[in-house]
Write a structure and sequence with these properties.
Layout: E1 12-15, E2 18-24, E3 33-39, E4 46-52, H1 70-83, E5 93-96, E6 114-115, H2 116-122, H3 131-138, H4 148-158, E7 171-172, H5 174-182, E8 186-190, H6 194-199, E9 206-207, H7 214-221, E10 227-231, H8 238-247, E11 253-257, H9 260-266, E12 275-277, H10 279-287, E13 292-296, H11 300-305, E14 312-313, H12 319-322, E15 331-335, H13 340-351, E16 357-360, H14 363-369
Length: about 375
């Protein structure tokens, strides 16, 4: 929707002594393209591929982001890979759009670049030479797709807001914050670690630590049509946090609470907290037969790998709609891999009226390191 130059299969343009050629590589999306670079002063063979979300290091793009079209796009991805990309020479360097941590694939390597030859030999998805088997593999057990993926596609299509058009993010006194919250049009996003959030926080805050997978998690659940007030560990973090939020389409950041949760408490306002228990305390409670539900908020795939017997699995973003499945009269111990996602889950539960909840500090990392019973 903004000024652009449409391209299609075979389009070419010159940049210095490099020729950049377009190849259509549908699969991750129907309109996906990749770019082949030829260094004209060195010969006519391609030297680099900007593969976007088609080919990653150790993985390929996910084809399930368009409802009802996963199998169709998985088939198109197979064709794009084997009929186009893998026809390139082994020495051709590959520069994907993402590395490890993205939800655009399933098991990306931590490496950021690769070569066609390396992927031909070691990429698990490329070892599946039967198209129907490839389609089955690529449409089974994919991780959940974050809510903001479709929103960011729309933003990319029309162009994001200019940074110069966005208001500066400044500190707001706790008394003013209280008045703003009373109007009901603001969200509090607390970006501190789960231990700090659990100790004291503004009631009904979201807790998403900026030390976790912050942009993905925030983009997943924070409503984009609401104004955001931040609680931070230090004002020095503001610039980075704001920049990160804007990259996932969360532009409506009104300011941050001066002196954070401590300033809020010193102003005489009501505070909330989340109880934290150790993995050993959880183990003791389970062995004692206490009335306790263990809520595992990891993905279904993680849960299938290992979990505490008798625990209930609801992926943390789904608690926004599925928290009604949980008992209101039992203590709930919330566990994830380390504690960060459990804290997001607890903030969602708190927002929905649950109070008898605890974060399991250290999560399964601590549980296993503590030598507790098998999962």
């Amino acid at each position: 929707e903004f000024l652009h130059q449409p391209v299609s299969d075979g389009s070419r343009f010159i940049l210095d002594d490099c020729e950049i050629s377009v190849i259509e590589t549908p699969g991750h999306t129907p309109e996906h393209v990749s770019y082949i670079v030829t260094h004209l002063s060195s010969g006519n063979e391609p030297v680099a591929l900007f593969s976007g979300d088609t080919l990653f290091v150790g993985d390929v793009g996910r084809p399930d982001l368009f409802p009802g079209r996963a199998r169709e796009l998985a088939g198109a991805l197979y064709d794009s890979l084997h009929e186009k990309i893998m026809k390139l020479p082994d020495h051709c360097e590959v520069y994907p759009a993402h590395g490890a941590g993205t939800f655009c694939g399933r098991s990306l390597s931590a490496k950021r670049t690769t070569t066609i030859g390396y992927e031909r030999r070691f990429n698990p998805a490329l070892q599946i030479r039967d198209k129907m088997a490839f389609i089955h593999e690529l449409t089974s057990n994919m991780p959940p797709s974050p809510d903001h993926f479709s929103r960011c596609s729309d933003i990319n299509r029309r162009g994001p807001a200019l940074l110069s058009s966005l208001p500066p993010v400044t500190g707001i006194r706790p008394r003013t914050v209280k008045d703003l919250l009373a109007k009901g049009a603001y969200e509090i996003l607390d970006t501190r670690r789960y231990d700090a959030f659990g100790s004291v926080h503004i009631p009904k805050s979201w807790n998403i630590s900026n030390e976790s997978n912050f942009p993905t998690f925030a983009g997943w659940v924070i409503p984009p049509d609401r104004d955001i007030l931040l609680v931070v560990h230090s004002p020095e973090e503001i610039s980075k946090i704001v920049s990160t939020l804007r990259k996932v389409g969360l532009d409506r950041i009104s300011g941050y609470v001066e002196k954070g949760a401590t300033g809020w408490a010193l102003a005489g306002n009501v505070v909330d907290h989340v109880h934290t228990i150790s993995v050993h305390e959880l183990d003791r409670m389970l062995h004692a037969g206490e009335e306790l539900m263990v809520l595992d908020v990891r993905t279904a795939g993680e849960f299938a790998g290992y979990h505490i017997p008798g625990s209930v699995n609801i992926h943390w973003p789904d608690l926004r709609t599925r928290c009604i499945e949980l008992p209101a009269d039992r203590q709930i111990a919330v566990i994830c891999g380390t504690g960060s996602r459990a804290s997001i889950a607890c903030s969602i539960l708190k927002r929905n009226g649950y109070s008898n909840i605890s974060i399991v500090a250290g999560g399964y990392t601590g549980w296993i390191a503590g030598g507790l019973h098998q999962v």
